[in-house]
Task: inverse folding
């Protein structure tokens, strides 16, 4: 069974550009989470989907970040326009309903120059 | 804040030695999990310990949980160079996983 997959694995963009990150959760997992780790700092929660609904988006840093999960399958996280401080590793995780053991993807390393 | 906090922030040991990392938190939890992140790579789930458990083993890993002190420890025995990574505790209460800042472990061959 495939695990959580994220695309791309690495993205380098210029400040002001737009980037879209994608996460494919494990099939059948209702819960999908986005996290971010800025260099050397803690892993911070961004938001949580239950199927296609945003359960908790309290961690989204500002309105330059937009997450969607159409149809309750894969999710995208768009950053528009990107700023230098957005650089970091973006992790996606999924879990079954009622199960807090989350499975993480390999992450997308975003570098904004 | 529910955030777990690892201690120490950085640890450097010789191959073959044991490494102990600690995690403290502030609120009640359902379970506590430890993760590893190798440089530039994804998070790997190591072990989960539930709030009603006190100790758990998995291979060379031993995790303890003391809910009265709101703390957990991760022991890696007979460390190897490949254990070099950042280790995070993550607590789960009524909200999604909350991670600490991590302990950076360096195992020197």
Result:
């Amino acid at each position: 069974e495939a695990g959580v997959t994220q695309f791309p694995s690495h993205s380098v963009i210029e400040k002001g550009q737009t980037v879209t990150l994608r996460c494919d959760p494990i099939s059948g997992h209702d819960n999908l989470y986005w996290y971010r780790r800025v260099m050397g700092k803690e892993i911070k929660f961004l938001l949580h989907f239950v199927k296609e609904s945003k359960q908790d988006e309290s961690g989204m840093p500002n309105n330059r970040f937009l997450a969607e999960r159409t149809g309750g399958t894969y999710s995208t996280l768009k950053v528009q326009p990107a700023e230098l401080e957005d650089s970091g590793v973006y992790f996606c995780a999924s879990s079954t309903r009622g199960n807090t053991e989350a499975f993480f993807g390999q992450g997308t390393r975003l570098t904004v120059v | 804040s529910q955030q777990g906090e690892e201690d120490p922030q950085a640890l450097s040991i010789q191959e073959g030695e044991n490494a102990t990392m600690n995690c403290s938190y502030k609120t009640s939890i359902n379970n506590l999990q430890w993760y590893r992140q190798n440089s530039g790579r994804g998070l790997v789930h190591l072990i989960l310990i539930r709030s009603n458990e006190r100790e758990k083993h998995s291979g060379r890993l031993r995790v303890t949980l003391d809910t009265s002190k709101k703390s957990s420890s991760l022991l890696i025995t007979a460390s190897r160079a490949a254990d070099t990574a950042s280790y995070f505790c993550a607590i789960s209460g009524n909200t999604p996983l909350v991670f600490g800042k991590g302990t950076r472990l360096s195992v020197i061959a």
User: Anything to note?
Assistant: Chain B touches chain A at residues 3, 30-31, 33, 35, 37, 40-45, 48, 88, 90, 92, 95-102 (CB under 8 Å). The mean pLDDT of chain B is 89.
